[in-house]
From TrEMBL:
Residues 16-250 form the 5MP1/2-like HEAT domain. This is Basic leucine zipper and W2 domains 1a. GO terms for cellular component: cytoplasm; membrane. Residues 1-28 are annotated as: Disordered. PANTHER family: BASIC LEUCINE ZIPPER AND W2 DOMAIN-CONTAINING PROTEIN, EIF5-MIMIC PROTEIN 2. Pfam families: HEAT_5MP1_2.
Length: 275
């Protein structure tokens, strides 16, 4: 009887395929940009075709992973570097928000493109708001026309409830205010809210702080009621200037009443029948 343990047969040269989901996909926004830019260049300025292209591409491209790149391209034509510049080394498209005509009708059409895209891919909603916040911080890096278009788009989106009022917090960033770049953007934003007939009904809790908020938009050496009133009146927003003045007057009266009550309080304590 052979007590020697028999050796089990082995297979040599066999390779096991790894599942794709187990492989870590390399982050490659450049390749993503090329795909989007190519499609936009083919659709051209036909925004209806652009919307259809974006709708279909979401099934093939990873919008969730490259949301920031996607919105950079749709707004500025290519991926934005910190500060708002676009690298000349990367492929870019001339069919984007910043190269479109600077008028309300065109900006409303672009707002519809973004609205359709986010309705179709709901997970892009948060990323889109973050994109608007970022773009408003980059105002200094954009041309005057680009700033105006961005402000008009933001005003339309706010008026239609497509984005939350939190995005305008970027306009109060210290560096943006210091350069004075936020004023034209704020002006156009309010104009669009006014055109949509919801200037004073929009986020009413914010309007309660309107005088203080808008004063903070000006550089420190220009924060006065006179400067504020003149700027927005000249910009065609006299109703905003008047509203802010009225709110400030109401605030002053309330402050005066509070001071009088504090001054009179001891009299009521020591002489309850004073009156």
């Amino acid at each position: 009887m052979n007590n020697q343990k028999q050796q089990k047969p082995t297979l040599t040269g066999q390779r096991f395929k790894t599942r794709k989901r187990d492989e870590k996909e390399r982050f490659d926004p450049t390749q993503f940009q090329e795909s989007i830019v190519q499609g936009l260049n083919q659709t051209g300025s036909d925004l209806e075709a652009v919307a259809k292209f974006l709708d279909a591409s979401g099934a093939k491209l990873d919008y969730r992973r490259y949301a920031e790149t996607l919105f950079d391209i749709l707004v500025a034509g290519g991926m934005l570097a910190p500060g708002g510049s676009i690298s000349d080394d990367l492929t870019r498209t001339e069919f984007c928000l910043f190269t479109a005509q600077e008028d309300l009708e065109t900006m409303q059409a672009y707002a519809q493109v973004f609205n359709k895209l986010i309705r179709r891919y709901k997970y892009l909603e948060k990323g889109f708001e973050e994109e608007i916040k970022k773009l408003l911080l980059f105002l200094k890096g954009f041309t005057e026309s680009e700033r105006n278009k961005l402000a008009m788009l933001t005003g339309i989106l706010l008026a239609n409830g497509n984005i939350s009022a939190a995005v305008i917090g970027s306009l109060f960033n210290e560096n943006v205010v210091k350069e004075g770049e936020c004023l034209p953007a704020h002006h156009y934003l309010y104009l669009d809210l006014s055109n949509e007939s919801c200037l004073f009904s929009f986020f009413p809790n914010v309007w309660l702080r309107l005088p203080q908020m808008n004063m903070e938009l000006f550089p420190a050496n220009k924060r006065s009621c006179e400067h504020f009133s003149k700027y927005f009146t000249d910009a065609g927003l006299k109703e905003l200037s008047d509203f802010a003045r009225n709110q400030e007057a109401i605030g002053s009266r309330k402050e005066l009443q509070k001071e009088l009550q504090e001054m009179m309080a001891p009299l009521f304590v020591h002489s309850p029948h004073f009156f």
